[in-house]
Amino acid sequence: MFSYRHGFHAGNHADVLKHTVLVQLLAHLLQKDKAFWVIDTHAGGGMYDLASGYATKSGEAETGIQQVWKHRKDKTLPAALKDLIEQIKVCNEGDQLRWYPGSPQLAAQMLRPGDHLRMYELHPTESRELAKHFADVRRGVSIQVADGFASLKGSVPPPPKRGLVHIDPPYELKEDYRRVVHSVQDALGKFPTGVYAIWYPMVARREAEILPTHLKKLAPGKWLHVALRVKATARDGVGLHGSGMFVINPPWTLYDTLAEALPWLVENVGQDMHAAYELEADIR
User: Strands 141-144, 163-167: parallel, antiparallel or unpaired by DSSP?
Assistant: First the structure.
């Protein structure tokens, strides 16, 4: 149950897609003066060292964020990827990319005084790393060693009645797909105006293929679905060949912003001729 470590996959192609979307969602919420909360159900360790530990064993950042980072000075880099790079620069010095921020760190550095970041992490090692990373932060964040699925319903609606819910489980267990659907359904019943960002893996598993369909049925008339395939499915069916993000109550600008970035990602992060993207939305 506790084998998954975020650091092993830090900065891979899935993180690039996920965090590109998250930065845009946060920037949209920041446009209004009213405070909001970010609720991260599977927060991970917060920050990852790409030069040591798990990240060096997998090398996944080399075909992910490093492919974007090396183009950081290109004037033709799409705006959404420029925004992501600017947030990553906050955690690094000079031209070397060593530290990769997870979703909690991205949120923490973008939020204002008065906004709040609530994080859940059940993995014992990840939760310790998360607490250590935010040890010097006195206000604006809270961490609970708890099941994010089970805790979400009690966390919404947040006091300001504005918020972003990020759901990013490891999907090691087949039941995680079912729990995503049930958690979103329960949360929407209490907080229908919240922004929900659900990440999922593209793997050779029926549950992964039909998850967006289930989420479309839950969305109250406003949703966006984006998926990035980077390579062909392995013959043995093992491994991650892409990932997707399903956003409920997205900003109306997100579709066009991603439509600009996705062809660039296919060309620069794609690993073979099967690289492709999908972008669809229902924004009434």
Answer: unpaired
